[in-house]
Amino acid sequence: MREYHVALSGNDRAAGTKEAPLRTISKAAGLAEAGDTVIVHQGVYREWVKPARGGSSPICRITYQAAENEKVIVKGSEQITGWEPLEGTTVWKVSLPNSFFW
């Protein structure tokens, strides 16, 4: 049984330890096996998490939890910045690259 740590300051090429956390919950979900725990540290995580495995039974599953006394928010939405007012109206606009809609 292993613990994987995830933090916004992490790196998905790191070991996933508390001292060298991963950056994304998705990366931890891809590494975790039955009986492992993924501990997510404080922050807003804007990602879609689709675990590759869930565990081998209700007793031996992969557990995901927020780090003790830390607030974690997982959102599937993207934060769009760069909005500009359309001159002479109350409408705001932003241009997004086609790659945004992959």
Shape: elongated
Instruction: Describe the sheet with the most strands.
Output: 3 strands, parallel
Strand content: 15-25%
Biggest sheet: strands side by side, in what order? 1-2-4
Mean pLDDT: 93
Number of helices: 1
Spell the H/E element sequence.
EHEEEEEE
The rounded Rg comes to 18 Å
Strand count: 7
Structural class: mainly beta
Distance between the termini: 36 Å
Instruction: Report helical residue fraction.
Output: under 10%
How many structurally independent domains? Answer: 1
Query: Could you name the ranges where pLDDT drops below 50 across 5 or more consecutive residues?
Result: none
Please describe the structure with a list of short key phrases separated by commas or semicolons.
1 helix; 7 strands; three-stranded parallel β-sheet; single chain; 102 residues; two-stranded parallel sheet; elongated; mainly beta
Structure description:
- The chain has one domain (3-101).
- It is elongated.
- With 102 residues, the protein is mainly β.
- The chain has 1 helix and 7 strands, in the order E-H-E-E-E-E-E-E.
- The longest helix is centred in the first third of the chain and has 7 residues, at 25-31.
- Helices cover 7% and strands 24% of the residues.
- The model has no long low-confidence stretch (mean pLDDT 93).
- Strand 6 and strand 7 form a beta hairpin.
